[in-house]
Amino acid sequence: MGWNRQQMCKRASKELLDGFYVNLGIGMPTLVANYIDNTKNITLQSENGMLGMGPFPKKGKEDPDLINAGKQTITSLADSSFFSSADSFSMIRGGHIDLSILGAMQVSESGDLANWMIPGKMVKGMGGAMDLVAGVKKVLVLMDHNAKDGSPKIVRKCTLPLTGKGVVNLIITNLGVFEINDGIRVLEIAPDLNKEELINNTEADLNFI
Amino acid sequence: MGWNRQQMCKRASKELLDGFYVNLGIGMPTLVANYIDNTKNITLQSENGMLGMGPFPKKGKEDPDLINAGKQTITSLADSSFFSSADSFSMIRGGHIDLSILGAMQVSESGDLANWMIPGKMVKGMGGAMDLVAGVKKVLVLMDHNAKDGSPKIVRKCTLPLTGKGVVNLIITNLGVFEINDGIRVLEIAPDLNKEELINNTEADLNFI
Amino acid sequence: MIDRVYKKVYKSPKQALDGVLFDGMIIMSGGFGLCGLPENLILALRDTGVKNLTVISNNAGTEGQGLGLLLETRQIKKAISSYVGENKLFEKQYLSGDIELEFNPQGTLAERVRAGGAGIPAFFTATGVGTLVAENKKHESFNGKDYIMETGLVADLSIVKAWKGDKSGNLIYRKTARNFNPVMATAGKITIAEVEELCEIGELEADQIHTPGIYVDRILKGTHYSKAIENLTLSEG
Amino acid sequence: MIDRVYKKVYKSPKQALDGVLFDGMIIMSGGFGLCGLPENLILALRDTGVKNLTVISNNAGTEGQGLGLLLETRQIKKAISSYVGENKLFEKQYLSGDIELEFNPQGTLAERVRAGGAGIPAFFTATGVGTLVAENKKHESFNGKDYIMETGLVADLSIVKAWKGDKSGNLIYRKTARNFNPVMATAGKITIAEVEELCEIGELEADQIHTPGIYVDRILKGTHYSKAIENLTLSEG
Fold first, then answer.
1. Using an 8 Å Cβ cutoff, are D178 and C212 in contact?
2. Averaged over D230-236, what is the pLDDT?
3. In chain A, positions 137-196, which contact chain D (CB-CB < 8 Å)?
4. C209 touching A, CB under 8 A?
5. What pLDDT was estimated at residue D2?
6. Whose CA is closest to B128, among B41, B57, B51, B24?
7. Could you tell me if D169 and D176 are in contact, meaning their C-beta atoms sit under 8 angstroms apart?
8. D contact residues 169-188, partner A, Cβ 8 Å cutoff
9. Cα B20 to Cα C41: distance, rounded to the nearest angstrom
10. Per-domain residue ranges for chain B?
11. What ipTM does the predicted assembly reach?
12. How far is it, in rounded angstroms, from Cα A104 to Cα A118?
């Protein structure tokens, strides 16, 4: 039902405007890089200390000293720069990154985000997620509309521990695009879907105006 | 009476121990560099952003991009490094500099230092002095024992606005060497001087034990 | 992978300043004394006539040099600096009440600017405790030692000077001309950099960049560098 | 002017660690995942058997790699990290209560270390406001926005890894192997650096030094660099 992952990533890539500095989270957000419009000048930041992240290396060209925040081997570009973790998060915390795309377990109608722990399960840590959502100018959540058990992930109030409070600006799921700004406004609905289906799959109130 | 400026600087240079990183203030403290024992490894810091400050340049070798905190042209050495003002004062504030030598208008018996303003006169600013005295491991004041009008500069309580409170560890004047540590202890008296003369020229109580 | 088009390069300081100025704005200027000053931008700033400026800069220039140029034209309303000793005109304007002055210890000033750029609204420092600087500031004790709270600083515009810069805004500074420039580049809502050498993308080594391009909104090659020496001091022989 | 004698160079990681270790000490270790790890020092640290360590490091290594080595020997009592996902042994020791864990957001961790090295006992950040991280922390509002207070971190010993270093302790890092190393170098009461290339004084360019020698108490050339890749990812073609 709705968009597939490719379509979701493609839709997300439209939020990367010309001149933007962007941080892509681990997982599906990383794939958005594949859909960037080449006519736009987009610079990718990796919070472990790099601006101007290039594509994954060709075989034999991998460099253990050159990885992204997901510990994947990457490459640099002609305009790349490297810096320390402290300088990297000064950039993030200081509001210099235009857009961050992250995955989520839950997003509330007030923009609260939960994506780092499930009580009772082993916690791996929040990594840089809390810093990103607190510091970056615009936060886009890219996720499946529903959890694997079918339960809605766009909720009135997050039941999971938060990563940030009132931090999410935009949600892109397989079912639509949603703006959070004093409630949730539906910007787009996936083509083969009606309003009612969307409402049924969402706990939070949706504003269609 | 007492030591001349050369002798004072020479005495001060003995406080620069092997391996020390040292910041020398503007004026007489800068001259201490001329008396550093070449068998010791001493690194000079300049708070405008340099470690490993070399001597003044030879004529024609001056570089407008290479100055010290007194805006004097200087040179670099083989082990020099340059850094920003923020990084420079992180070094200072973080206690990484072993010794700072500064001039003073007044020093109190509890180690209070006044060297940046005289009420009613135009104030030029404290520059980096407050940061240095608050951050450096050991603060040495190098000054004339008395003001031009003969009044004592080592006082019970500073009457001038402070640069730092309880920050001075050692004073070297033309009349002697004084350690501040729960009162003032006289470590050395200039050769042609007696205790009484020293006491008469000092407002604060002196401990000769 | 991408043939990037960089839109940060401006032909002149005048063009680079176009559309970013307004009376009463806060401007940060890099430089220590006359070393590492954005000379071309200061000159152009003077010619725009923008006024009632609050200028955050370690020093106030000398007469006819650096920010001294903006004093002659009375464009500065307030200065936040650590040391203004070398400028008699500043002294005159200050004593006549024409200019407001806020002294910050040099390290506190540098850290306030860094904090502003790094999204840190306030921090604690031992610098200035027990002095006039600490008056009316929040005190707090950590591990038995007293500290005061200082706040972050941001500017409407930062003007900085680098040695080399590329068209994506990456900057490299030279020797002690680095000073306040890198932190100020991070703390301007808009940052304009002037450079001695404007390089093509790829000419600067990624490991050696002092200011990543993200901080630089506009960049230009300066044509006029007087690089005055304030205090020429030579060794004998 | 001076023919300096540098006393910072050590022949081996074992010798470099001599006299600085004690049970229950706090150790910072640079590295992000397995990238930029002080591999030789971690190995030597394991062999000394020093125990009850509090280790401040972004990650906890993987099994048999990095700090994972010190988990096998149960030398770590507490970890302060932002992410420990890659280590099953860590998980096991944590769930059995053998190891204490304090999670810090990655940027807060980096800034706490930087603050520790810079003499800043505490600072305010918006990171973590409204989350578990903010619990029991001081809150304060600046310009209508809420922030929490975080404190500076220092260590008894910092171990870092650089690409090149000279005999005075100046360090240059390579690519993303820089990560936490420069800030941790500033925050150790003692800092030991291991390098791939130990250079003579003067071989490193003064403008390009990432960590000035003042922060490095001891330096050694590492002989064993496995430089494992955690997550080899290749592009097609």
1. no
2. 93
3. 161-166
4. yes
5. 45
6. B24
7. no
8. 173-183
9. 40
10. 5-208
11. 0.97
12. 12
Q: Decide: helix, strand or coil at residue D81.
A: strand
Angle at D35 between CA D31 and CA D39, to 5 degrees: 70
For the question of residue A47 being annotated catalytic, the response is: yes
Q: Are A175 and A158 in contact (CB under 8 A)?
A: no
**CB contact, 8 Å: A34 with chain C?**
no
Touch between chain B and chain D (3+ CB pairs, < 8 Å)?
A: yes
pLDDT in tens, D79-96: 999 999 878 888 888 888
* Terminal C-alpha separation, chain C: 56
B19, B51, B90 member nearest D117 (Cβ): B90
Count CB neighbours of D178 within 10 A. 33
DSSP C75: -
CB D218 within 8 A of CB D16: yes
pTM greater than 0.80 (yes/no): yes
- The structure tokens listed for B114 are 């006044």
Q: Does D121 touch chain B (CB under 8 A)?
A: no
Contact residues, chain D, for B42 at CB < 8 Å: 2
Short-list A117, A173, A182, CA closest to A3: A173
Task: Pick C119's closest partner by Cβ from A38, A76, A135.
Answer: A135
Enumerate the residues of chain D whose CB falls inside 8 A of the CB of residue B81. Answer: 170, 206, 209, 212-213
Hey, what CATH topology would domain C2-119+154-221 get?
Glutaconate Coenzyme A-transferase (3.40.1080)
User: Does D220 contact C at CB distance below 8 Å?
Assistant: no
pLDDT of residue D71: 92
Residue-level length of chain D: 237
H or E, element range at C26: strand C26-29
Which CATH architecture fits B5-208? 3-Layer(aba) Sandwich (3.40)
In B, residues 80-139, which contact D (CB 8 Å cutoff)?
Answer: 80-83, 89-97, 135
D97-140 tens-digit pLDDT: 999 999 999 999 999 999 999 999 999 999 999 999 999 999 99
Can you give the residue ranges of every domain in chain D? 2-119+154-221
- In a structure prediction context, what are the per-residue pLDDT tens digits for chain A, which is 209 residues long? 799 999 999 999 999 999 999 999 999 999 999 999 989 999 999 999 999 999 999 999 999 999 999 999 999 999 999 999 999 999 999 999 999 999 999 999 999 999 999 998 888 999 999 999 999 999 999 999 999 999 999 999 999 999 999 999 999 999 999 999 999 999 999 998 999 999 999 999 999 98
Which chain D residue is nearest to residue A85, measuring alpha carbons?
D179
- pLDDT, residue D61, reads 86
Task: Compute how many other C-beta atoms are within 10 angstroms of the C-beta atom of residue C54.
Answer: 18
Residue of A47, A109, A188, A197 with catalytic role: A47
CB A81 within 8 A of CB C212: yes
Q: Which residue has the tokens 């890198």?
A: C182
Distance CA B65, CA A69 (A): 37
